[in-house]
Amino acid sequence: MKVTLLGTGGTIPTLRRNLPAIALQRDGDIFLFDCGEGTQVQFLKASLSPGKLFAICLTHLHGDHVTGLPGLLMTIMQQSRERSLFIFGPPGIREFITLFKKSLGFNPSYFLDVREISEGRFYSGPNFFMEAVAVDHKPRTLAYCLQEAPRPGRFHPEKAKELGVPEGPLFGRLQRGETLTLESEKVITPSMVMGSPRKGRKFVYVTDTRPCPQVVAFADDADLLIHEGMFISEMENEAHLKGHSTVGQAAQIAKDARVRKFVITHISSRYRRTDELRKEAHNIFPGAIVGKDLMEILIPLHK
């Protein structure tokens, strides 16, 4: 997996920060989380192909998170796309898309599979699934998780040979989880030659929310948590009034959730320098990263 931060600002764009958009690349597909104004230009800067989009996941219907969608979808239409494109989001997303399709005369040649979702698991694919949870913001706002299924443990060919399994196709059958019966009638199960299953990777994206306990459980043990941190702690009252989190609050959630890597995004335009934000986050979660546009983050496989 590789994550590219296409937009790390919030509310209004700046020369340094585009509006919210996060691209996750996995097995040749791209999952886009939010689509602020200018996202399609950020795709070009990041050398990403919109044609590889598998799904767009929208957190809520505030303009800074969705106004890039019409242009991106129209660009995709120019690329002669044929396969369907999923769009997930809270109630209201379907009406929003219907209205701009009508007003812009947009009639895509590909099928837009728009699904209004609620909390819980909403999509299962080959070896992964996606979940959502409602957070503390208005209008209704969702956080997203992409979780991979566990991978089989390491195959130990020396153990297989010791048990009398000849090298060749039978090795592959054991790795695929099949039980073998040898000519000697000896039964060999995968557990006899395979190590323990390896954890799948977990990515969590949370933005536009006051700190809330359900996010801690939702992000538990994530490989990467991207969480908004719009203000420093001295502006906690304003953050609460506007339905946002401070950097310190976001860092505490990352710490409580025991995540491996934590990135701060949706940063207010008032902060031209990020030293103060980084210091506040590091006091709670050492190693916290203040996101920058076009920053790339790898999520390696578990060994």
Keywords:
303 residues, alpha/beta, Metallo-beta-lactamase, Chain A, 16 strands
Layout of helices and strands:
Layout: E1 2-7, E2 21-26, E3 29-33, H1 39-45, E4 53-57, H2 63-66, H3 69-77, E5 85-89, H4 93-104, E6 112-116, E7 120-125, E8 128-134, E9 142-148, H5 157-162, H6 169-175, E10 180-181, E11 187-188, E12 202-206, H7 213-218, E13 224-228, H8 236-241, H9 247-256, E14 262-265, H10 275-282, E15 289-290, E16 296-298
Parallel strand pairs: 3-4, 4-5, 5-6, 12-13, 13-14, 14-15
Antiparallel strand pairs: 1-2, 1-16, 2-3, 7-8, 8-9, 9-12, 10-11
Helix pairs in contact: 9-10
CATH superfamily of the largest domain: Ribonuclease Z/Hydroxyacylglutathione hydrolase-like
Number of strands: 16
Mean pLDDT over the full residue set: 95
Given helix and strand content, the structural type is alpha/beta
Q: N-to-C terminal Cα separation, in Å?
A: 14 Å
Return the string of H and E elements.
EEEHEHHEHEEEEHHEEEHEHHEHEE
Contiguous low-pLDDT stretches (5 residues minimum) are: none
Q: How many domains, as an integer?
A: 2
Oligomer: single chain
Shape: globular
CATH class of the largest domain: Alpha Beta
Helix content: 10-25%
CATH topology of the largest domain: Metallo-beta-lactamase, Chain A
Number of helices: 10
Q: Which architecture of the largest domain per CATH?
A: 4-Layer Sandwich
| Largest sheet geometry | 7 strands, mixed
β-strand percent reads: 15-25%
The gyration radius over C-alpha positions equals: 22 Å
Strand order in the sheet with the most strands? 6-5-4-3-2-1-16
